[in-house]
Description:
This protein is of the alpha/beta class and 203 residues long. Helices cover 22% and strands 26% of the residues. The chain contains 5 helices and 8 strands, in the order E-H-E-H-H-E-E-H-E-H-E-E-E. It has helices spanning 41-51, 61-70, 80-85, 110-118, 131-139; strands at residues 2-9, 54-60, 88-91, 103-106, 124-128, 145-150, 170-178, 184-192. It has an 8-stranded mixed sheet with strand order 4-3-2-5-1-6-8-7. Strand 7 (170-178) and strand 8 form a beta hairpin. The longest helix has 11 residues, at 41-51. The protein is globular.
Amino acid sequence: MRLVLQEFLTLDGVSQGPGSPDEDTSDGFTRGGWFVPYLDGEFEQITADWLGEADAFLFGRRTYQNFARDWPTMTDHPSAPILNGRPKYVASHTLTEAGWHPTTILSDDVPAQVAELKRQPGRELQIHGSARLAQSLLAAGLIDVLRLVIAPVVVGQGRRLFPDGGAPAGLRPVSQRTTPGGLSVHVFEPTGLPEYGTYGAGA
Length: 203
């Protein structure tokens, strides 16, 4: 399976709390819900198409708990059978049980366990949100595709997907489109370490 990251970002790189003001208030974050004003039917179709490619899902603890709270009750949503029915994995050193079935807890060497999952047959193992987990797996060279959706807003506060001091990575653009609501949808493939150069008059 390919490991695919799907992440919502602001223009200043914040990934925290896109869906509602109370989604993630950790570290005093007070500006959640910044993604919602830009949603439209075209983007909902894009995400539905992506979701249909998933054979399994991988979450960090916080995102998993949010999804596990909400999706079992959303039985009328067209995405519910996929999210509720397909295998899920949650990386956590604190969870001892997970009630959103079928879920497996990954608690030891998470990168090694994820590498083993990738060797299983299938299409996509998708990470939704879960920025801290995504950072560690990107640094380990395990992410195959990044689907980054950028909202035209600067919030000036919050946890960033690419923080200062994070692992460097080169990316190859695969596709880009803009939705009527103003979301910029980018798909990248990692290419290893970045390349560097010097610009000069003779360049």
